[in-house]
Predict the structure.
Amino acid sequence: MKKILVVEDYEDTLAMMRIFLKMNGYQVLEATNGKDAIETASRELPDLILMDISLPLVNGIETTRILKAIAETKHIPVLVITVRSNNPSMCNQAIEAGAIECFGKPVDLELLTNAVKKYTEGEVSG
C-alpha cells in the first residue's frame, strides 16, 4: 500500500484528505506543521507528500526546500495544495523549492486523484 504524507494544519481539510485518500486505498500519514512534516517524511519515507503552504513553525515552501536537501527524502514528489494558488508567485516559489505541481483549495478531487495516481504509480519521479 502506497503511503502519502498529508501536511495540513487545518483539521477540516486534513480530515477530508484523510478520508479521500483512504477511500482510494492509500495509507495516510499526517503532519500539522513543517517541523513534524520533515521528521515524519524522514522516518516514514512516504511515496508522495501533499503540502500546504501556510503552516506553523516552518512554512510549506521552506519545508519542501528542506526535504529536497535531505538525501533520504529528496526523491519524494511534493504536490502543493494551497488557497494561495491564485497567487502565481506562491506556486512559483513552491516549484522552485522542489514541488512538482500546485493545486488550489478547494481542491478539485478529480485532478488530485489523477496527480496522486500519476506520482504513486512510478510513472514520474520527484
Notes: The longest helix spans residues 11-23.
